[in-house]
UniProtKB/TrEMBL annotation:
InterPro entries: Aldolase_TIM (IPR013785), Class_II_FBP_aldolase (IPR050246), FBA_II (IPR000771). This is Fructose-bisphosphate aldolase. CDD domains: TBP_aldolase_IIB. Its EC number is 4.1.2.13. Keywords: Lyase. Its cofactor is Zn(2+).
Length: 306
């Protein structure tokens, strides 16, 4: 059961993207990775008057030592304490297990992503449809992935293999599953670009858009040049309307703290108040920069009231 109400700023992914797509901006799906940084992401959205998505993946929950319930509890606590008024989605990113999805929905997540992209088409579609049936009955949006998005740090995915999304298969997949958003593989990758450089196959995106009305998602937003991203959500007929950003937030946090190695969530919670504030300020600044320069979502919270 979600904790949203008629006067709550917390909405579903479907509700958020239905506004973003026709207004030609993308909503950032930001992973704070540490519960003390949830406040920093929310403050950035409030400060930029931007809609936003706060997310965490199944692998991040494991790696940083967090439960879905703990993440959801802190999210809703901060929404209330910070008096957040901009539209915000609580999203479970890359997840392969239905049990984790059920736990997240019970914790108040308003959107979940089932990632069965490594499975054959028919199996991916069947698994994704099962999640859609379960989540939609709870009023929760569903994102799925078709094709395989590459990676460089293996925080969110297990393989660095990349397989571009086929537009014809995408249309069939959406029709079978009834998903609300589709993560497509068209040149970006999870993690930091070191040797391989980001690129976006705009022709592929336009073909997918022409064949299916589903909202499109780009994963691997960290490190992509702003002009490249702007082109992706200004495509004729509607382009990308959700972009995942995680690595850039953690890098700014660690740099501000003078650290190179990741922490556990418990280590982050045990930082001194002074160090926590330094870290939060860095994350807030990074998120606001993305909203202003990268996503064009700054100031767009107002369009949700029209």
């Amino acid at each position: 059961m979600t904790r949203t109400s008629t006067n709550s700023p917390v909405i579903t992914l479907k509700q958020a993207l239905e506004v973003a797509e026709p207004h030609h901006f993308a909503i950032g799906s930001f992973s704070p990775r540490y519960t003390p940084m949830i406040a920093a992401v929310l403050q950035a959205g409030q400060g930029a008057n931007s809609p936003l998505i706060v997310q965490i993946s199944h692998k991040e929950l494991i790696r940083y030592g967090i439960t879905a319930a703990e993440f959801g509890e802190e999210f809703y606590r901060q929404v209330e304490e910070l008096k957040i008024t901009v539209p915000v989605v609580l999203h479970l990113d890359h997840t392969k297990e239905l049990e984790t999805i059920k736990e997240a929905i019970a914790a108040g997540f308003t959107s979940v992503m089932i990632d069965a992209s490594e499975k054959p088409f028919d199996e991916n579609a069947a698994i994704s449809k099962e999640v859609v049936v379960y989540a939609h009955a709870k009023g929760v949006s569903v994102e799925a992935e078709l094709g395989m998005i590459g990676t460089t740090d293996f925080v969110e995915t297990d393989k660095d293999e990349e397989l571009y999304t086929d537009p014809v298969e995408a249309a069939e997949f959406v029709a079978i599953t009834g998903i609300d958003a589709l993560a497509v593989s068209c040149g970006t990758a999870h993690g930091v670009y070191v040797v391989k450089q980001p690129k976006i196959d705009y022709d592929r995106l336009m073909k997918i858009r022409k064949l299916t009305p589903v909202h499109l998602v780009l994963h691997g937003g960290s490190g992509v040049p702003p002009e490249m991203m702007r082109n992706a959500y200004h495509l004729p007929g509607g382009g990308v309307s959700k972009v995942n950003i995680a690595t850039d937030l953690e890098l700014s946090l660690l740099k501000a703290l003078g650290r190179e190695e990741r922490m556990t969530n418990e280590e982050c919670k045990n930082l001194s108040p002074e160090m926590l504030q330094i870290g939060r300020d860095a994350v807030t600044q990074t998120v606001m920069e993305k909203m202003n320069e990268f996503l064009s979502s700054a100031g767009k919270a107002d369009v949700f009231n029209k």
